[in-house]
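Exam revision sheet. Question 4 asks you to relate a sequence to its structure. Input first:
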Amino acid sequence: MEPMPIMIVAPKIRGFICTTAHPDGCARHVAEQIAVVQKRGPIAHGPRKVLVIGASTGYGLASRIAAAFGSGAATIGVFFERPGEPGRTATAGWYNTAAFEREAAAAGLYARSFNGDAFSDALKAEVIAAIKADLGQVDCIIYSLASPRRTHPRTGEVCKSVLKPIGETYTNKNLNTGTGVVNEVSIEPAEGDDVAQTVAVMGGEDWEMWIDALQAAGALAPGVQTVAYSYIGPSLTWPIYKNGTIGKAKEDVERAQRALDTRLAPLGGKAWVSVNKALVTQASSAIPVVPLYISLLYKTMKAQGTHEDCIEQMDRLFRDRLASGKPQPDEAGRIRLDDWEMAPAVQEPVARNWQAVTTENLAELGDFEGYQASFLRLFGFGLAGVDYAAETDPEVPIPSIRAAASGG
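Answer key, structure tokens:
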């Protein structure tokens, strides 16, 4: 009998990503998020059959947890993650999903997952076939995909998204998350087809393609709701975000929302854009300026008792906005879950601290320690009750993917 391919897993950080993930830590993180939702009680009139596109980390994972453990929903998750192998850990999203499926099975909840290119027609067809066979229809579709590139399913063109300002070089304060040094960063403006490529990857076209394919297959339930996630943030981040290349993509998501609203109207359905809070996610860690802003934001919101993580945000989305029938849209028709972040009582001290912050006073004005802890937790590190000195098996199966692979 061959020995178990076990290893001691420690964080290995390269730039703004961690190249390892801890299976037991990720499982604990998922369990903690489930507990947050369960403590708040059942979500009345919540969705029952939910498809989450981009379901393995951050807001997408939290959406799946809130739907399943808040309103008892059957869930299908779509993502692109790497499984573990001897001597090499899986990505955090793989371990998160394995843990989610185990917890769902223990709670008697249907959960099925698909690992592959969500932009492709082939995976869409595979997922829709599973919906038709297992659930009949879905009543909620969450679109939470964040990807650096997309192969267009019709043209075969490979597009790449970039994080750049538009028009002129942007210079502002920045936090080196590896060293804790507050320095200055300058980002050159978009050039050539940077904007078009970013819109092609991160805009609304793929969301529309998913909904169109589901609708054509008769897989959308009457009254269906679909939500895509966005971010606006304070004016200090606008040159790199709202008014930059990624902002143009988010404008296209809002265009798609309006188009989908019209298409879903005959079903009594609704498309939403939810503007969420700035949080430490794998995507946000890559954006210059944002980690420093988040550190200052966390300090203020924690002091005021209004800090939320992904799971609290998504629980509030389902519980207080979608299921309650009181979405409270803004003048542009968007759901604003960033309402607590953008309150003047939060933004005014953050803006003052932004002007004053240096490497020397970062610990006083910001919560860099909290930022770092949140970042490590994304990969399953720093969670209470996990023995990080113990050996663990990096090869953890996702039950539904293993069953599908074996034909079961």
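Marking note for examiners. The chain has a mean pLDDT of 94.
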